[in-house]
């Protein structure tokens, strides 16, 4: 089945939107609601991608009886796995789900490990420690070849290899959208619960929250672990979607600074703001990339810089004229309206 280029464009746009929505929702939980400036967001995302690149391929190669060095013969092995998965679709789906679970577990463990050195720090110092930890994962991936093939990278098995032609794109988009919706609703429920109000209390005044008997360190560690698990799932989904993983693709700009820009545009500590901010950013960025060759004759500089300039200008305009974002933070109700009416009566 061959789809029109506009359909593929829209399907790819929504797939990238779904992946970024998962990552941005986790970042909003950390930074927007809990006040943790996680400038090492790329760490959890890369961990999820590295899990998808290193574990399911080896499991499926063992089950299919495919021999060879997984890194050196990666292209041949993954090609044979994808052919094998055409007749073993159920196994491919099970391994895919299993991989997401492993990514979430390892992501939360890495979140726990990364939180201990910096959790006693505040503000800029905590941000710098997390930034350094985020940079370390790319260096490890680039230099430790058995993990994800070093600077060459590796291919990732395709659980949708049974689909023919361009049909993979819309089906993958629907699946990614379903997972993103589940993650969004889960975080929305958490942030509207007493736990969400506790996170805001810790963010606004740690001393007051501690005076009321709250364990600040434990709350911040658990928040980082939960957000890291969700971001790792987003990273694993991205690796499955693009079909490969290469360490240098997981840089600070794409997986730390862009997510910060998206949630700031949409509005911090507002789940609806994450939805809209991510959609606006991803759509503008995708449109620039798609149509940039048509703009070359009208722009007096290299069109490759247009993406960074426009998105930077949008961020500056938002910070000057609407620093609270498109959707400002709203307080959550401690009691439903029906109970409030009863109390007043």
Topology:
Elements lengths: L4 H29 L7 H14 L1 H9 L9 H13 L2 H30 L4 H21 L1 H4 L5 E2 L12 H24 L2 H11 L1 H6 L4 H27 L1 E2 L6 H15 L4 H25 L10 H16 L15 H8 L1
Helix pairs in contact: 1-8, 1-11, 1-12, 1-13, 2-5, 2-6, 2-11, 3-4, 5-6, 5-11, 12-13
Summarize it.
With 345 residues, the chain is mostly helical. It has 15 helices and two strands.
Give the radius of gyration. 21 Å
SS strand fraction = under 5%
Tell how many strands the DSSP assignment holds: 2
User: Spatial order of the strands in the main sheet?
Assistant: 1-2
Largest sheet: 2 strands, antiparallel
* Outline type: globular
Residue share in helices?
over 70%
Mean residue pLDDT: 88
The end-to-end span amounts to 64 Å
The SSE order reads: HHHHHHHEHHHHEHHHH
Structural class: mainly alpha
Tally of helical segments: 15
Low-confidence stretches: none
Key traits:
345 residues; 2 strands; mainly alpha
Give a verbal description of the structure.
The chain has 345 residues and is mostly helical. The chain is 73% helix and 1% strand. The chain has helices at residues 5-33, 41-54, 56-64, 74-86, 89-118, 123-143, 145-148, 168-191, 194-204, 206-211, 216-242, 252-266, 271-295, 306-321, 337-344; strands spanning 154-155, 244-245. A two-stranded antiparallel ribbon has the order 1-2. Helix 2 (41-54) packs antiparallel against helix 5 (89-118). It starts with a helix and ends with a helix.
